[in-house]
Amino acid sequence: MLNDDPDDPVLVRPWWWLVWLTTATLAFIGLAALFRWWGTTLWALAAPVVIVLVVLALGARRTASPDGAHGLVTQAARTAGRLVVPQHVDRVPALVEEAAGGVRALELTSSSAATARLETGVSWRSWGERITLRYRPAPGGGTEIAARCDPAFWLTVHDHGRGAADLEQLLDGIERAAAAEDARA
Hints:
Low-confidence stretches: none
CATH topology of the domain at 63-184: Alpha-D-Glucose-1,6-Bisphosphate, Chain A, domain 4
Strand content: 15-25%
Largest sheet: 7 strands, antiparallel
Shape: elongated
CATH architecture of the domain at 63-184: 2-Layer Sandwich
Transmembrane segments: 15-35, 42-60
Radius of gyration: 20 Å
Structural class: alpha+beta
Keywords: Membrane, Transmembrane, Transmembrane helix
CATH superfamily of the domain at 63-184: START domain
Mean pLDDT: 78
Number of helices: 4
Number of strands: 7
Strand order of the largest sheet: 1-2-3-7-6-5-4
CATH class of the domain at 63-184: Alpha Beta
């Protein structure tokens, strides 16, 4: 369902709406069979269609960060962004660890020389998020960090902006940590 290519700006594959239609239809048929509604509420067969239209409206919405920070782009509940720091790629895992410690909701689950994975827990607005960072040398020197935030529950269509906010806080923290390291050097 998700597009895992960090260089591709399309965050969700086009067929994701089919999963929603199938799920809504099966749920309705299950409820209708359970309560034997077939003869009395034929109009309710339109419910899956209405659900799909709402999901399509939410999922097709593509927004950018209001302040343009880090090139954040959100489609449905998935957010992607980029950051370039002047440090060498070997220093970036330490910067990410420092930045993740400064964001209360994030927990660093794994880190390597090329990637990091962070997670948030469940809240009233979200099932949680999984943030993936990929580092690679930038063409003009330094390191480019490609960041992507996906919901923990794959059918999530709307997360009330929590994923974008978490990703923006993390990238801001990495940027501050990189600036502080430059100032010390």
